[in-house]
Write a structure and sequence with these properties.
The protein is an alpha/beta fold. It is built from 11 helices and 8 strands. Helix 3 runs parallel beside helix 5.
Length: about 230
Protein backbone atom coordinates (compact mmCIF):
# COMPACT_ATOMS: atom_id res chain seq x y z
CA UNK A 1 0.00 0.00 0.00
CA UNK A 2 1.30 3.42 -0.93
CA UNK A 3 2.30 5.56 2.05
CA UNK A 4 0.12 8.65 2.60
CA UNK A 5 1.82 11.94 1.75
CA UNK A 6 3.70 13.73 4.51
CA UNK A 7 4.11 17.45 3.89
CA UNK A 8 6.55 19.55 5.90
CA UNK A 9 6.26 23.30 5.63
CA UNK A 10 9.58 25.09 6.11
CA UNK A 11 9.95 28.77 6.99
CA UNK A 12 13.09 29.94 5.23
CA UNK A 13 15.33 33.04 5.36
CA UNK A 14 15.04 34.77 1.98
CA UNK A 15 18.80 34.75 1.31
CA UNK A 16 19.33 31.12 2.31
CA UNK A 17 20.45 28.71 -0.44
CA UNK A 18 21.63 25.76 1.67
CA UNK A 19 18.68 24.57 3.73
CA UNK A 20 16.31 23.79 0.86
CA UNK A 21 18.49 21.19 -0.93
CA UNK A 22 19.68 19.71 2.36
CA UNK A 23 16.14 19.42 3.72
CA UNK A 24 14.81 17.95 0.47
CA UNK A 25 17.61 15.38 0.41
CA UNK A 26 16.97 14.46 4.03
CA UNK A 27 13.27 13.85 3.34
CA UNK A 28 13.90 12.01 0.07
CA UNK A 29 14.55 8.71 1.84
CA UNK A 30 11.08 8.73 3.45
CA UNK A 31 8.37 7.54 1.03
CA UNK A 32 5.69 10.15 0.45
CA UNK A 33 7.53 12.92 2.32
CA UNK A 34 8.04 16.35 0.78
CA UNK A 35 9.19 19.78 1.90
CA UNK A 36 7.44 23.03 0.98
CA UNK A 37 9.10 26.39 1.57
CA UNK A 38 7.94 29.89 2.41
CA UNK A 39 10.49 32.71 2.56
CA UNK A 40 10.63 35.93 4.53
CA UNK A 41 13.31 38.59 4.23
CA UNK A 42 16.54 37.89 6.14
CA UNK A 43 19.74 39.39 4.75
CA UNK A 44 21.90 40.37 7.73
CA UNK A 45 22.87 38.72 11.00
CA UNK A 46 23.98 41.06 13.78
CA UNK A 47 22.85 42.31 17.16
CA UNK A 48 21.50 45.51 15.63
CA UNK A 49 17.86 46.56 15.61
CA UNK A 50 17.52 46.02 11.85
CA UNK A 51 18.64 42.42 12.13
CA UNK A 52 16.37 41.79 15.10
CA UNK A 53 13.38 43.25 13.27
CA UNK A 54 13.76 40.68 10.49
CA UNK A 55 12.50 38.01 12.90
CA UNK A 56 9.44 39.86 14.10
CA UNK A 57 6.48 37.63 14.90
CA UNK A 58 4.13 39.23 12.37
CA UNK A 59 6.65 38.79 9.56
CA UNK A 60 7.16 35.10 10.24
CA UNK A 61 3.45 34.46 10.72
CA UNK A 62 2.70 35.98 7.32
CA UNK A 63 4.99 33.37 5.76
CA UNK A 64 3.33 30.67 7.89
CA UNK A 65 -0.06 31.73 6.56
CA UNK A 66 1.10 30.99 3.02
CA UNK A 67 2.38 27.56 4.03
CA UNK A 68 -0.93 26.72 5.65
CA UNK A 69 -2.58 27.06 2.24
CA UNK A 70 -0.60 23.95 1.21
CA UNK A 71 -2.20 21.96 4.05
CA UNK A 72 1.15 20.94 5.47
CA UNK A 73 1.25 18.49 8.36
CA UNK A 74 3.75 20.52 10.39
CA UNK A 75 5.84 23.67 10.15
CA UNK A 76 9.52 24.16 10.80
CA UNK A 77 11.37 27.44 11.27
CA UNK A 78 14.72 26.39 9.82
CA UNK A 79 16.71 29.28 11.21
CA UNK A 80 18.90 29.80 14.25
CA UNK A 81 17.99 33.33 15.36
CA UNK A 82 16.77 32.13 18.77
CA UNK A 83 20.32 31.05 19.58
CA UNK A 84 21.16 34.73 20.15
CA UNK A 85 17.66 36.18 20.68
CA UNK A 86 16.84 33.55 23.30
CA UNK A 87 15.04 30.22 23.10
CA UNK A 88 11.90 31.92 24.42
CA UNK A 89 11.65 33.69 21.06
CA UNK A 90 11.13 30.35 19.30
CA UNK A 91 8.83 29.04 22.00
CA UNK A 92 6.55 32.04 21.45
CA UNK A 93 6.77 31.58 17.69
CA UNK A 94 5.80 27.91 17.84
CA UNK A 95 2.83 28.71 20.07
CA UNK A 96 1.69 31.49 17.72
CA UNK A 97 2.01 29.30 14.61
CA UNK A 98 0.03 26.49 16.18
CA UNK A 99 -2.72 28.82 17.38
CA UNK A 100 -2.92 30.57 14.01
CA UNK A 101 -2.71 27.61 11.63
CA UNK A 102 -3.74 24.62 13.71
CA UNK A 103 -0.67 22.59 12.75
CA UNK A 104 2.23 21.56 15.03
CA UNK A 105 5.48 23.46 14.71
CA UNK A 106 9.11 23.38 15.79
CA UNK A 107 12.37 25.18 15.05
CA UNK A 108 16.02 24.42 14.45
CA UNK A 109 17.08 25.82 17.82
CA UNK A 110 14.40 23.93 19.74
CA UNK A 111 15.42 20.73 17.94
CA UNK A 112 19.12 21.20 18.74
CA UNK A 113 18.35 22.04 22.37
CA UNK A 114 16.21 18.93 22.64
CA UNK A 115 18.98 16.75 21.20
CA UNK A 116 21.52 18.12 23.66
CA UNK A 117 19.19 17.71 26.63
CA UNK A 118 18.12 14.19 25.65
CA UNK A 119 21.71 13.02 25.33
CA UNK A 120 22.87 14.71 28.51
CA UNK A 121 25.29 16.99 26.69
CA UNK A 122 26.55 19.85 28.86
CA UNK A 123 29.83 20.72 27.08
CA UNK A 124 29.85 21.59 23.39
CA UNK A 125 32.09 22.92 20.65
CA UNK A 126 30.46 25.63 18.54
CA UNK A 127 31.08 26.45 14.87
CA UNK A 128 29.32 29.40 13.19
CA UNK A 129 29.88 32.04 10.48
CA UNK A 130 28.80 34.85 12.84
CA UNK A 131 30.51 37.90 14.33
CA UNK A 132 32.25 37.97 17.71
CA UNK A 133 29.39 39.76 19.48
CA UNK A 134 26.73 37.44 18.06
CA UNK A 135 28.86 34.44 19.02
CA UNK A 136 29.25 35.79 22.55
CA UNK A 137 25.49 36.20 22.86
CA UNK A 138 24.97 32.61 21.73
CA UNK A 139 27.46 31.34 24.31
CA UNK A 140 25.65 33.29 27.04
CA UNK A 141 22.24 32.03 25.95
CA UNK A 142 23.37 28.43 26.03
CA UNK A 143 24.89 28.88 29.46
CA UNK A 144 21.39 29.65 30.76
CA UNK A 145 20.36 26.21 29.47
CA UNK A 146 23.15 24.51 31.43
CA UNK A 147 25.32 24.04 28.33
CA UNK A 148 28.91 25.27 28.36
CA UNK A 149 30.65 26.18 25.11
CA UNK A 150 34.16 24.87 25.80
CA UNK A 151 35.56 25.78 22.37
CA UNK A 152 34.28 27.91 19.51
CA UNK A 153 35.16 29.10 16.04
CA UNK A 154 33.41 31.84 14.06
CA UNK A 155 34.11 33.64 10.78
CA UNK A 156 32.99 37.19 11.53
CA UNK A 157 30.47 37.40 8.68
CA UNK A 158 27.23 39.40 8.72
CA UNK A 159 25.79 38.94 5.21
CA UNK A 160 23.52 35.91 5.32
CA UNK A 161 23.97 35.09 1.62
CA UNK A 162 27.75 34.91 2.13
CA UNK A 163 27.43 32.09 4.67
CA UNK A 164 26.60 29.65 1.87
CA UNK A 165 29.91 30.44 0.14
CA UNK A 166 32.04 29.20 3.04
CA UNK A 167 34.02 26.19 1.78
CA UNK A 168 33.37 22.82 3.39
CA UNK A 169 37.12 22.55 4.05
CA UNK A 170 36.93 25.65 6.24
CA UNK A 171 34.00 24.20 8.18
CA UNK A 172 35.84 20.90 8.55
CA UNK A 173 38.91 22.64 9.98
CA UNK A 174 36.75 24.49 12.49
CA UNK A 175 34.94 21.32 13.55
CA UNK A 176 38.22 19.48 14.04
CA UNK A 177 39.56 22.34 16.13
CA UNK A 178 36.63 22.50 18.56
CA UNK A 179 36.27 18.71 18.72
CA UNK A 180 39.84 18.51 20.01
CA UNK A 181 38.74 20.41 23.13
CA UNK A 182 37.08 17.34 24.59
CA UNK A 183 33.56 18.62 23.97
CA UNK A 184 30.81 16.03 24.26
CA UNK A 185 29.30 17.27 21.00
CA UNK A 186 29.94 19.81 18.27
CA UNK A 187 27.19 22.07 16.94
CA UNK A 188 27.44 23.56 13.44
CA UNK A 189 25.04 26.43 13.97
CA UNK A 190 23.59 28.15 10.89
CA UNK A 191 21.17 26.74 8.34
CA UNK A 192 22.96 28.55 5.50
CA UNK A 193 26.30 26.90 6.23
CA UNK A 194 27.26 23.79 4.24
CA UNK A 195 27.89 21.59 7.26
CA UNK A 196 25.73 18.55 6.55
CA UNK A 197 28.32 16.44 4.75
CA UNK A 198 31.07 17.59 7.10
CA UNK A 199 29.03 16.50 10.10
CA UNK A 200 28.29 13.09 8.62
CA UNK A 201 31.87 12.28 7.66
CA UNK A 202 33.64 13.67 10.73
CA UNK A 203 31.23 12.19 13.27
CA UNK A 204 32.39 8.69 12.32
CA UNK A 205 36.03 9.67 12.08
CA UNK A 206 36.27 11.65 15.32
CA UNK A 207 33.83 9.61 17.36
CA UNK A 208 32.13 12.81 18.52
CA UNK A 209 28.47 13.67 18.08
CA UNK A 210 28.23 16.45 15.49
CA UNK A 211 24.94 18.26 15.10
CA UNK A 212 24.41 20.22 11.90
CA UNK A 213 21.53 22.62 12.47
CA UNK A 214 19.93 22.09 9.06
CA UNK A 215 19.97 18.30 9.40
CA UNK A 216 18.71 18.31 12.98
CA UNK A 217 15.91 20.70 12.02
CA UNK A 218 14.87 18.63 9.00
CA UNK A 219 14.76 15.43 11.06
CA UNK A 220 12.66 17.10 13.75
CA UNK A 221 10.30 18.60 11.20
CA UNK A 222 9.85 15.28 9.43
CA UNK A 223 9.13 13.47 12.68
CA UNK A 224 6.60 16.10 13.67
CA UNK A 225 4.94 15.92 10.25
CA UNK A 226 4.59 12.14 10.39
CA UNK A 227 3.57 12.01 14.03
CA UNK A 228 6.60 9.97 15.13
CA UNK A 229 8.69 10.55 18.27
CA UNK A 230 11.77 12.68 17.89
Amino acid sequence: MKAPPVRLGVLTPSSNTVLEPVTAARLATTPGASAHFSRFRVTEISLGSHSRAQFGLDTVLAAADLLSDARVDAMLWSGTSASWLGIEHDQRLVKAIQERTGVPATTAVLAIDRQLQQHGVSRIGLVTPYTTDVQGQIVERWATRGIEVVAERHLGLTENAAFADVAELVIEEQVRAVAASGAQAVVILCTNLNGAQVAESLEHELGTRILDSTVVAADAGLALSSGTPW
